Amino acid sequence: MEILPKYGLLYSDESFEMVLCKPKILPLKSVTLEKLENMQKQAQEALKMQEQQQDTAD
Predict the structure, then answer these.
(1) How many Å apart are CA 24 and CA 27, to the nearest integer?
(2) Which of 1, 26, 39, 49 is the most exposed place for a label (fewest CB within 10 A)?
(3) CA 42, 44, 50, 52 torsion: positive or negative?
(4) What gap in Å lies between CA 39 and CA 6, rounded to an integer?
């Protein structure tokens, strides 16, 4: 329940101003995408190693 005065001025001390926040920097690549790329790179390197071993065995 709000009670307003019958006489006098009604004022508020609060002033509303814009508050600037720090910008949130988003990564260009997501963590899961980086993990997938690393897995693919490791798989390609393992495949190259196997091919080199087969070439040297022949």
Answers:
(1) 10
(2) 1
(3) negative
(4) 74
